[in-house]
Design a protein that fits this description.
Length: about 475
């Protein structure tokens, strides 16, 4: 017999965005039902942010042994136990799972329905034996790996982010389709753990990032031993053999074929829409190659009682973007505040070593939008902390208007994601470049590079002929 539930808010999807809405709204006194048909924690905890960073951490440990000689420490070739590495990945996920568990959310007052939900009308959702009527719905079902239209791909044993962290056998030669952040991170991780890795990218490696800063990551992956093939056109994929003897061959229209024993597809994402039956709810879906829920600036769908956040609405595919949207939805639903989405200060990080972090406009984007800009740079070669650590890779690059308004920043180097934080605040608060140049940065830190880059804005005038003339003139009045 069906159970009928009435609630203030029904959240569909227990990933980062959905959990943030559910926890926040429940703790503020709203009645909340959370519907999750798979794993609590969603993609980020189980198949994305957490396991990938755990794998990268293990790969970094393996690499450190090879790079110790300049410090006077004997270099050593590490012995990698791949099963133990993957056990470390699983243990990391398991350590965080209680924070996202059914038990924790039930303790917060959230009613959790463990079933897949689908709409039966504009105000009602069916999930298992539950019929849920809510004043407001929030769709937060996330996305899954997209599958390129490549002949033969569906017939070979390919991996995605949902299966790669379950490997029990280390690939000898891992082929990766896609040179975006996921492809870059997994390429470096598996290479440093001892696999041969080939990345096949249809366009430019890390094509959404500033080419100048992305080049540092590309150079490091080459040094690690990753084979990067850009601008390739894949004609077909085929497999032979079984089990440990499996061979996968990727044939190219513009190059020699490449063969490996494992294939990872990291060529984009597609929102999870199919199970929702959104047409019955009056929710419009976008046209185009990647359908998603269309939302307005307040994250409302065409059915104004139904909101959509995270990957499912076609916006930036980051956990922190979903969390930001969750906060806006809570304000819109509970407090009737017209909170509108604004991604102009949304940071982006690729967690390779060196890390690549950026916010705002790239140099190319700024040049398209503004008649005149200033580009400020400070290399880590000029940073004392980087020299002490013998890791001078990378730079800080900042783009401003001629009058010093910050348009964007890109940092590539050790800890770039952390170093981006001040630029994120500056851009979000509309601070001028003078605010960053005037910061007192502790010495010796990598953070000094940001201050020096900001200060570079003033170099042409501060140390120019005009300033010298003024100083000489003022010197006439000194005693």
């Amino acid at each position: 017999m069906a159970e009928h539930i009435k609630t203030d808010i029904c959240v569909i999807g227990g990933g980062s965005g959905g959990l943030s809405v559910a926890a926040g709204a429940a703790q503020m006194g709203a009645q909340v039902v959370l519907v999750e048909g798979h794993k609590m924690g969603g993609d980020c905890l189980n198949y994305g942010c957490v396991p990938s960073k755990a794998l990268l951490a293990a790969a970094e440990r393996a690499h450190m042994g090879r790079s110790n000689k300049p410090f006077g420490v004997a270099a050593a070739r590490p012995k990698v136990d791949f099963k133990a590495v993957m056990a470390h990945v699983r243990e990391t996920v398991e350590a965080i799972e209680p924070v996202d568990s059914v038990e924790r959310f039930s303790g917060l007052g959230v009613r959790v329905v463990e079933a897949t939900g689908k709409f039966i009308d504009r105000k009602t959702l069916k999930a298992g034996n539950a019929i849920i009527r809510a004043k407001r719905f929030v769709v937060a079902t996330g996305s899954t790996a997209g599958l390129p239209n490549i002949r033969g791909l569906k017939s070979v044993p390919y991996l995605t982010n949902e299966t790669v962290f379950s490997l029990s056998r280390q690939p000898k030669h891992l082929l990766i389709i896609g040179g975006g952040p996921i492809g870059a991170e997994m390429a470096q991780a598996f290479c440093r753990l001892g696999s041969q890795v080939t990345v096949l990218e249809a366009d430019r490696f890390l094509g959404r990032d500033d080419p100048e800063t992305a080049a540092h990551v590309k150079r490091q992956l080459h040094e690690d031993g990753v084979a990067l093939r850009e601008g390739v056109r894949i004609s077909s994929v085929a497999a032979s053999g079984k089990g440990a003897g499996t061979k996968i061959t990727v044939s190219l229209q513009n190059g020699a074929p490449v063969t490996g024993d494992a294939l990872l597809v990291a060529a984009g994402r597609k929102p999870n829409l199919a199970a929702l039956d959104l047409a019955k709810a009056g929710v419009s879906i976008s046209d185009g190659p990647v359908p998603h829920i269309q939302v307005d600036k307040r994250l409302r769908s065409s059915n104004k009682k139904i909101f959509a956040i995270g990957d499912v609405n076609g916006g930036p595919q980051f956990t922190h973007a979903a969390g930001y949207q969750a906060g806006l939805v809570i304000r819109n639903i509970l407090f009737f505040l017209p909170a509108k989405v604004n991604f102009s200060a949304l940071p982006r990080v690729t967690y390779t070593n060196p890390e690549l972090a950026s916010i705002g406009l790239s140099e190319a984007e700024a040049r398209e939008k503004y008649a005149a800009i200033k580009v400020l740079r400070w290399p880590f070669e000029e940073n004392d902390r980087a020299r002490a650590e013998r890791d001078m890779r990378g730079m800080v690059k900042v783009v401003t208007t001629r009058n010093g308004r910050i348009l964007g920043a890109s940092i590539v180097g050790k800890g770039a994601g952390d170093l981006l934080a001040p630029w994120t605040m500056a851009l979000a608060q509309g601070l001028p470049i003078s605010a960053m140049a005037g910061v007192i940065s502790p010495y010796p830190t990598r953070g000094e590079a940001s201050k020096r880059a900001a200060g570079d804005y003033y170099t042409p005038t501060l140390f120019g002929p005009r300033t010298r003339k003024i100083v000489r003139l003022l010197g006439l009045f000194r005693r």
